[in-house]
Amino acid sequence: MLNIGIVVGSTRQGRKGIQVARWLLDHARRRGDANYTLLDLADYPLPFFGAELPAEQKEAADRAIRAWSRAVEAQGAAPVRSVLERFPGEADRVKRLVKRGVLVERQTVRDRLKPQKRLFVHPAGDAAAIGAWIDGLPASAKRQKDVLAHFRDHPEPVPLSELAERLKVASGVVKALADKGYVEIREREVLRDPYAGRPFSPLPAPVLTAEQAA
Q: How far apart are the first and last CA of the chain?
C-alpha cells in the first residue's frame, strides 16, 4: 500500500497548520487507500536550509536532519530530478548532503535487470517412466518421442523455446506431451544478464613504480 506523509511545515508559536493537518490526517485515514503519517517539523529541530552553522552546532543539526531524512524515507524515495526541480540551483548543496551521509542516493538499472518470464519444460517422470512412455507412443509420433528421449537422457528443465530450437520441433509438440501428462510446462522468472553478448577487451597491465616493484 502507498505511504503518504502529511507535512506540517510551520514551527512558529501559535501556528494553525497543526490543527488542519490533524483534521486532514483523520479524514485521509478513513479512505483506507494508503498509509497516512503526520510529519511535524516541530519534532525535528532542523537548521534553515543552506545556513552556515558553528562547528559546535553541526553535530546536533546533522542528527536532526538524519532523523527527518529517516522519517521521510519511510514514506518512499524521491527521484533526484524531482528534488532538483523543487530546489533549482542547489545541486552542489544536495551533493554535499549526500557526501556527509545526510541524504542517501541509490542508483538502480531497472531496464537491464528487470526479470522476464520464460516457459520451462520439466519431465514428469524418471528415466524408466519416460522409456515406457516412448514405447507406448505410436510410430507416427516421432517428434514427441524425440522430446521424451531428450528428457530421458537429460532430465534437467529447459526453456521451451530452447528445446524447440535444439530438437527442431514445434512448441505444439511439447504442449501435446504436456496434455498427456508426460511433461510439465511452468513459468519462471529469470534475470537478464545486462552484459550478455558484449565483448570486453582486457586492460593492459599497470606500470609499477620502483617502490611497488621492489
A: 61
The type of residue at 95 is K
Contacts of 85 (CB under 8 A, 6+ apart): none
Cell numbers of 167, please? 530438437
Sheet holding 183-190, edge to edge: 158-159, 116-123, 183-190
Greater confidence (103 vs 187) lies with 187
C-alpha span between 173 and 163 (Å, rounded) = 11
**Distances from the Cα of 15 to the Cα of 8, 38, 40, 41, angstroms:** 10, 16, 12, 12
Say if CB 164 and CB 111 are below 8 A apart. Answer: no
What digits encode the pLDDT tens for the residues 188-202? 887 766 677 778 788
Is 38 strand, coil or helix? strand
Helix (H) or strand (E) holding 159: strand 158-159
More confident residue, 104 or 39: 39
pLDDT single digits (tens) 168-183 = 999 999 999 999 999 9
Q: Reduced to 3 states, what is the DSSP secondary structure of residue 35?
A: strand
In this structure, what C-alpha cell is assigned to residue 101? 551521509
Task: Summarize the confidence of residues 28-54 as an average pLDDT.
Answer: 82
Rounded Cα–Cα distance for residues 190 and 207 (Å): 41
